[in-house]
Amino acid sequence: MSDDDTPQTVEALRAELARSRQQVADMAAAQEEFLRAVSHDLRAPLRHVTSYGTLVREVLGDLPAEVVQSPALQEALGFLATMDQSARRMGLMIDGLLAITRATRAPLRCETVALADAVAQARADLAAAEAGRAVQWHLAPDLPVLDADAGLLRELLVQVLGNALKFTRGQAVAQIHIGAEPVGDGRVAVTVRDNGTGFDPARAGALFGVFQRLHRETEFEGVGTGLALCRVIAQRHGAQIAAAGTPGEGCTVRLEWPQP
């Protein structure tokens, strides 16, 4: 390249940078439109479904008792219950998508965060899920500090610890272990291990996909967005998340996270 070519090359690079910036701006605008549609446009018809389903049940309930108890009407009420359940499930799916989108777009404000403090805050958020149960928490005494956005880390821990509580409900005493060990390159491996229902290890790859579930809804509630949210949060921090499990023998979630 000659000296005469230098101005043209610089100008071409500037033009390419401007195009790239415009693409980023267009993507951000598209995400804003998605958020608007999800938060308002999609919720409006969903509210109509649940509201009018309730009105239909009230109208049917005003019919004479012998009509209400008839097999045909009882079947119709069953259809309404299924419709209402599905609509509410869709609402939870929309909430999950919104949470993932917000975690993707939220400004990342990393600081030194004590893992023990973040766990304590997440447990406080999960107090209702733990109430009335026998849960033993085993926290390593030397939990490290992490380089993390405190709010996003707390959100991730609420999902991971919430799953540990949910999938140990069948145990007389839930055992939840939280530990950490350095793995080199300025990173630490944080593990959350429980004695819950576990899962088929052959399906571990599907755990972090959106709307992916390994258990029936009749067994455990949820719509399959929590671990997808965790993956987004981990990736934004340059961290990695994985899970291992065995049916009937619990699950271990492993995070490899940067340290300050």
Would you kindly provide a written description of the structure presented here, covering whatever features stand out?
By secondary structure, this protein is α+β, with helices and mostly antiparallel strands. The chain folds into 3 domains: 3-38; 42-105; 111-258, Histidine kinase-like ATPase, C-terminal domain (Heat Shock Protein 90, 2-Layer Sandwich), CATH 3.30.565. The protein contains 8 helices and 7 strands, in the order ααααβααββαββαββ. The protein has helices at residues 6-41, 43-61, 65-68, 71-105, 115-125, 127-130, 150-166, 226-236; strands spanning 110-114, 135-139, 145-149, 174-184, 187-194, 240-245, 251-258. The strands form 2 sheets. The protein has a 5-stranded mixed beta sheet. A hairpin with a 2-residue loop joins strand 4 and strand 5. It catalyses: ATP + protein L-histidine = ADP + protein N-phospho-L-histidine.
Helices and strands in order, then pairings?
Blueprint: H1 6-41, H2 43-61, H3 65-68, H4 71-105, E1 110-114, H5 115-125, H6 127-130, E2 135-139, E3 145-149, H7 150-166, E4 174-184, E5 187-194, H8 226-236, E6 240-245, E7 251-258
Parallel strand pairs: 2-4
Antiparallel strand pairs: 1-3, 4-5, 5-7, 6-7
Helix pairs in contact: 1-4, 2-4, 4-8, 5-7, 7-8
Protein name: histidine kinase
Organism: Acidovorax soli
Keywords: Kinase, Phosphoprotein, Transferase
